[in-house]
Amino acid sequence: MSQRVYLFDTTLRDGEQSPGASLNVDEKIQIARQLAKLGVDIIEAGFPISSPGDFEAVRTIAREVKGVAVAGLARTHFEDIDRAWEAVRHAEQARIHTFISTSDIHLEHQLRMTREQVLEAAVAAVKRAKSYTADVEFSTMDASRSDLDYLCQVLAAAIKAGATVVNIPDTVGYAVPEEWGKFIDTICHKVEGIEKVIVSVHCHNDLGLAVANSLAAVMNGARQVEGTINGIGERAGNAALEELVMTLRTRKDLFSLYTGVHTEEIYRTSRLVSNLTGMKVQANKAVVGKNAFAHESGIHQDGVIKERTTYEIMSPAMVGISKSNLVLGKLSGRHAFRQRLEELGYNLSSEELKNAFARFKKLADKKRDITDDDLEAIIEEEIRKAPHTYTLNYLHISSGTTVVPTATVVLQRDGQRLEEAACGNGPVDAICKAVDKITGMSCTMVNWGINAITSGKDALGDVTLKITMDGQKVYVGRGISTDILDASAKAYVNAVNKLVWDNRPVEKIDIE
Ligand SMILES: CC(=O)SCCNC(=O)CCNC(=O)[C@H](O)C(C)(C)COP(=O)(O)OP(=O)(O)OC[C@H]1O[C@@H](n2cnc3c(N)ncnc32)[C@H](O)[C@@H]1OP(=O)(O)O
Ligand SMILES: CC(C)C(=O)C(=O)O
Ligand SMILES: [Mg+2]
Predict the structure, then answer these.
(1) Which of 141, 199, 276, 293 lies at a CB distance of 3.0 to 4.6 Å from 101, suitable for a disulfide?
(2) For 378-419, what is each residue's pLDDT tens digit?
(3) What is the mean pLDDT of residues 459-477?
(4) Start and end of every Pyruvate carboxyltransferase domain (predicted)?
(5) Which residue owns the Cα nearest ligand 2 atom 5?
(6) Residue ranges of the domains in the chain?
(7) 49 CB less than 6 Å from ligand 1?
């Protein structure tokens, strides 16, 4: 038996059956292009008889999206099949997917047909589809609640009529893995002609078992799995394709099977589907959720910093996420805390790390998410207390249209008063030059910007600027005042202090 598992993506058909998710033609085409890039084998682009818009979407996708088979869904009615063919006929590989229920409950209450009538309708539909295309998929809706002998009889007849793929749906998500695996195994052994076709499964998630059931089916002979991106679909949704693919890839030892999916495209596809359908992905969703590669607790973060595989069974890069996310919160430890500070450009001595970490833990008890801004504020506190850094004590500016801008600045350092004056191209330049005279350093300003924090004439100005000494490492300074020159002076001194602090001798420690 082939080791290749074909992926049938029905995001644009069953996925669109999610309450609230509706896609226009352009959006469907965008998703179809991305699905082709992802490497699925078949795109079920829609149900062409259902509306002129859906027909148009399927037809455009069939014409324009290359390198993938395109399927259109059809009931056993000939009008449905004819319409599906009209829509998919220009695809590189055009598939008609026709279906009818086989469970007694559906036959009695919905179709109001006898078993014989359903069998006849199935055979006629497959033959009709086959008159158009070699690639015909036949599905037995509500298979999991169908009488197994009758189901096998219908499948055998559909194969004899020309079906090339037989799909066994768990339409209402009723199956459980072990039982479902045996069910598929029986079909694979019992149905006449089954060895000539691909056996497929289509599992719904009403009990949260869609992926588990699909995998049980694959273990028992299914070689096509149907699913959707992010697991969207009718009611609780369909099997999530990204979970299926990553299970097969991660557990090759168990399955020894492969798909044609470029897994690095998974995350991009998931985001696109979520954005266009408006169906949010829950944070703890496997593979593509915001937290799928996020670690919050100290012990896990420590492990991941030392060796990613201690707490990750797949790498974020495999699914197209740039890196794992160490979330800082009250459960984090010093290893993760120090790593994040280093990423922000701060090297702390053992004493500084101890103090900053204690402050971080106190803050984390009160605040759920600790942001980089919070960390900066914690470090600012360390910088303010550190020796050899400067405090702005006094500022006088002389400026106007007829005078050369001049600044007089008084700073304090280690208890000492330091005063200098300087001229500049403008008042801010004069301030910086006066500060440079005091510090003995000549810094280049690479950026200066102001935001009004409050409104009105007495608005508080928030100046942010960036300086560098070596043209490489940049230090950001911030100052707030009602006077923008005072805010600029504070921001400049703030940046200079970071530079001084960063270049202090640091006794590096290992955290035990
Ligand atoms: C499990 C699944 O996901 S199946 C796919 C579900 N998706 C959809 O239904 C979305 C698209 N559907 C539609 O736009 C419409 O339902 C249409 C165009 C298909 C049909 O619309 P209508 O003709 O107005 O029928 P309506 O939807 O109310 O009822 C369905 C009819 O199809 C019949 N039917 C259902 N499945 C099948 C089937 N596989 N083969 C033949 N007939 C079927 C029902 O018995 C019912 O027939 P009745 O009118 O003789 O009682
Ligand atoms: C059309 C069929 C395959 C379906 O979506 C289902 O049975 O859930
Ligand atoms: Mg379905």
Answers:
(1) 141
(2) 988 888 778 889 999 999 999 998 999 999 999 999 999 999
(3) 88
(4) 5-267
(5) 14
(6) 6-277, 294-385, 390-502
(7) yes
